[in-house]
Amino acid sequence: MTITSILRLVGWRLLAGVGVLWGAATLTFLVLHFTPGDPAQAIVGGENAAPTPEVIAQVTAEYGLDQPWYLQYLDHLWRIVRGDLGTSYRLHTPVTQAIGEQAAATVELALAAAVIGLALALAVAVATAKRRRWIRGLAAGSELVVASTPTFWLGIVLLTVFSFGLRLFPATGSHGLASLVLPALALALPIAGVLGHVLREALEEVLDEPFIVSARTRGLADLTVRLRHALRHALMPLVTMTGYWVGALLGGAVITETLFTRQGIGRLLISAVNAKDLPVVLGVVLLSAWIYVLVNLVVDLLYLAIDPRLRPVAGVRPVAKGVS
Amino acid sequence: MKRPGVYLAAAVLVLLVLAAVAPHLFTAQDPLAVDSARTLKPPGAGHLLGTDENGRDVFSRIVYGTRTSLLLGFGAIAIALTFGGLLGLAAGLGNRLVENVIMRISDIGLAFPELLLALVVITVAGGGTSNALLAIGVAGIPGYARLVRAQTLTIRGSSYVEAAHALGLSAPRVVFRHVLPNAVKPVLILATIGVGSALVAGSALSFLGLGTPPPEPEWGSMLSTARNFISRAWWYGVFPGAAITLTVISVTVVGRALRLRSEGKSW
Amino acid sequence: MTLVKVENLRVAFGGVTAVDGVSFEIRRGECLALVGESGSGKSVTARTLVGLTGEGARVSADELTFGGQDLTRVRERGWRRIRGGRIGFVLQDALVSLDPLRKVGKEIAEVLAAHTTLSGTARTARVAELLTQVGVPEPELRAGQLPHELSGGLRQRALIATAIAGEPELVIADEPTTALDVTVQAQVLDLLAELKSKDRSLLVISHDLAVVARLADRVAVLKDGRVVEHGPTARVLSQPEHDYTKQLLRAIPAEHTKGTRLSGTGPSPAPPRRAPGEVVVRADGISKSFGGRPAVREVSFALRAGETVGIVGESGSGKTTTARIALGLTEPDAGTVEVRGQSWTGPGRRALRRDVQLVYQDTLAAFDPRYTVAKVLAEALAVAGGPRRLRRERSVELLELVGLGAQHLARRPLHLSGGQRQRVAIARALAPEPGVIVCDEPVSALDVSVQAQVLDLLEDVQRETGVAYLFISHDLGVVYHVCDRVLVMKDGRVVEEGPVETVFRAPSHPYTQELIAAIPRLTAV
């Protein structure tokens, strides 16, 4: 395998990513222009917004709403390429700025939850896969319960016990580590339940493989067999699910931020939905398409890192892999 | 070997469906009856699970909320399954052009978390129970389209389909006799498990104030209000959420058991 | 000097007894073979010797010793010293027995790290030595490769290297050659024979008496968890005492010419063979490439009614693609296939279909999982036409023809045994009364004695109905037994063809000579 062939693969994936972004941009255009009613009215906040005629004129000019639709479409794409996502007429700021101001808090929350969720899933799966019946039953039961618990209820339970009962952590806010603990847990646990379940099943399947028996016949310790031989194979389904859990983190962030009254893109989005602030909603949509494309690129490289058999051979075009 | 847990979960589901159809069998209290003298009372005699800020009985609101919550879960999956299934079949059985168009569009759909897609639908169409149902259903279409297509392609490539062709069966006959039934069955079973997550998504929208509006009883919207009273009334926030979790667990357990059985494994 | 002594070993999983009182011993420097079919308990016995019997196993024995050490009292830590260090283990298919994500050299070095005090660099050097010892050329290069980058033979050699890296006194080889092509199989057997020395013993597990004949000093034949016969290899093979051993010996197709019965059951005097009739399928210069790589190149053959033509070749030789083209399931890039004088590519192609049927290797995947045997046959009979009310009657006739009966109609193929499933597959193939049945490795997944029954059945059906077989197989012994004529394929080309007796007695192409010399035979002790 050569660097060129990896670069070529990255190139192909980026090209596919551009396709997804183009689709997302088109989707936002369709939403803007085919919502029932006047697009200018929709952009400034829907039928209840009561904008002044000057604002309507400004929107019409900015979005070129008096132009034929194909020119509007090209203009729409061109503005997205330039990084211009429009203006929030509710906040009176450009959408990129509004999102940028909230990004750090959401990234902090999502990263914390991702680390907790993955660590829990890995630890439980490695410790319990193919152990005695009651241990596995206990692990499977806990996974089922946490995976079935909605984030918003888990958050309420955590608040009831740890904020209002034991008074260990603050109930609201987004400053300092203490205010991060409960939201991150509420977001992480359901995801950890799902990932742990997948990982443990994969691990149990791998531990039955002949090459594991083979490794045991060489006199390796059980933990060595699990960590050195089995885990790498069991990670594949987890990587395949990356799209799912990144989505779950983003969706969950919306709920967690609302519940814990934290700063973040999720709260911004919900207030935008409530106020029918369409440019902000569509800005977040485009942002999530970006994240999806980047995450999938990372996933593809992770596949190659974990399973060398998938690495492209120089001169052979890589086979496109499903990205769900 | 059959596990008692599966029967327990199935029994819970039967009770839930019964509560959705005939809630009055489970409680004599009116879920909408306001009693300003008895607000935020803890669980006890008269009010099994306590009362809310308007003095309404939490237990009867949970019972009467079953219908809306289950409707959100099952309805959304029905939409996702019907349209996703048809698109997936078209992609799996159609020519390359049809397949590519459908799959590229569903790729774009998959680029957004389902909740986000649902929020876009609600921004455009507005909130409320039926719009929330529609939003979650639409958001689920790309996933099912992909699943059904993959399943169809697997079955199309199997030895028994090849054997049917070799016998000289016509192509439509092979599709209707062998491909369709075998492709649809596992997807239907997976959809059972999907009902749980659709239900959670539906109550999440209500929790965010975008689904079922008050005073209509619905689990998610109950939690949305309960959030303001966590410090004073733990029961108000705990029980509606427990109802959601119990429902999701039951649906998942039954769905997994069906799946194992269809794969010929023991439960 | 006894190295291993096993006395009255019993192993049970739950309530199911897998090993039911097995006794044997292995002396230093000798090779013992445990022979049996699936379910005989041979692999469980072998794994018990390294303490890896499996989850939920109950093991008991009057005596179970290795080098004087009582294995029933060994704890996990002790097992880790024995495994790899004193007993090396070779599992069957190296593709699945070597970690597919790790470099071959690392797998070998892992044993050295566990059982020797060698430093990192010394281990690297030792890995190369070991690979050389097991006959792997360019050892440094190979050590840095992944299992899938090695050929089947090299992979199996690398796996053997992991087993001998800890200098064990005993090497256990569980079906060491089952997944290999016949020429490679012979080389690996030679390598295993070399491993045996005055201080290294060998325990070989196999279903194949012919494989064992090359290697073992003594043989123990297992059936249903018991040793039914035990003795020096030459004696057991030439003068078997137990009926089961005799049955196994009779079932080896390579040792018996066409027309003799392998299973010893079924109707004895078959009706006389008919002379080959008109040409049913004619392939003329067919070629096929996949993604620029030729799979089949200019293959021609003719198949006449009532005869069996075999296509043999190792994996990747193009035999399966040839079969699929003959079936009309794959379009050739060049050349033509005619069925009774009509081209597959012409109009009326579906009407031709029923004349060419097929039987698969994987008997489970060949049936719609929702269908019962009755439905499977009804569907096939519907294609053939004929009155609907006679279908049940005709289904029973077909089942009786393949040695089953009306009682199987309501069953699902999923719940039948592998041999029974293959009988149903043959019945289905016969339903439209075809001129030809293409058999793609029809017995490769079956146990020896079941294989014998199915091969006998195919012979009976041919005598009864006059159907022609195109018989695809990697197993030369099977081809020798069932075919009238044979095509030998290599890299997509037919390198030799002719009557079976001529090709097997006097092969002219060097590749055919190599293949034939490599067939494991009972007499080649």
| Radius of gyration of chain B, CA atoms, in whole angstroms | 22 Å
Give the quaternary arrangement of the chains: heterotrimer
Average of per-residue pLDDT values of chain B = 89
CATH topology of chain B: MetI-like fold
CATH topology of the domain at 279-517 in chain C: Rossmann fold
Biggest sheet of chain C: strands side by side, in what order? 7-8-9-3-10-11
Under the CATH scheme, the architecture of the domain at 279-517 in chain C is 3-Layer(aba) Sandwich
Determine the number of helices of chain B (DSSP H or I, runs of at least 4 residues): 9
At the first level of CATH, what is the class of chain B? Mainly Alpha
Let me know the largest β-sheet of chain B. Answer: none
Q: What's the name of the CATH homologous superfamily of the domain at 279-517 in chain C? A: P-loop containing nucleotide triphosphate hydrolases
**DSSP strand count of chain B:** 0
The CATH homologous superfamily of chain B: MetI-like
Please specify the SSE layout and strand pairing:
The complex is a heterotrimer of chains A (324), B (267) and C (525).
Chain A: H1 3-34, H2 39-43, H3 53-62, H4 69-81, E1 87-88, E2 93-94, H5 95-128, H6 133-148, H7 151-165, H8 178-206, H9 210-216, H10 222-240, H11 242-259, H12 265-274, H13 278-306
Antiparallel strand pairs in A: 1-2
Helix pairs in contact in A: 1-4, 1-13, 5-8, 5-11, 5-13, 6-8, 7-8, 7-11, 8-10, 8-11, 9-10, 10-13, 11-12, 11-13, 12-13
Chain B: H1 4-21, H2 58-93, H3 96-110, H4 114-125, H5 129-156, H6 159-167, H7 171-207, H8 219-226, H9 234-262
Chain C: E1 2-13, E2 16-27, E3 31-35, H1 42-48, E4 57-60, E5 63-66, E6 69-70, H2 76-82, E7 87-90, H3 94-97, H4 104-115, H5 120-133, H6 139-143, H7 152-164, E8 170-174, H8 182-195, E9 201-206, H9 209-213, E10 218-223, E11 226-232, H10 233-238, H11 243-250, E12 279-290, E13 293-304, E14 308-312, H12 319-326, E15 334-339, E16 342-343, H13 349-353, E17 356-359, H14 373-384, H15 391-401, H16 418-430, E18 436-440, H17 448-465, E19 468-473, H18 476-482, E20 485-490, E21 493-499, H19 500-505, H20 510-518
Parallel strand pairs in C: 3-9, 3-10, 7-8, 8-9, 14-19, 14-20, 17-18, 18-19
Antiparallel strand pairs in C: 1-2, 1-4, 1-5, 5-6, 10-11, 12-13, 12-15, 15-16, 20-21
Helix pairs in contact in C: 4-5, 4-7, 5-7, 7-8, 8-20, 14-15, 14-16, 15-16, 16-17
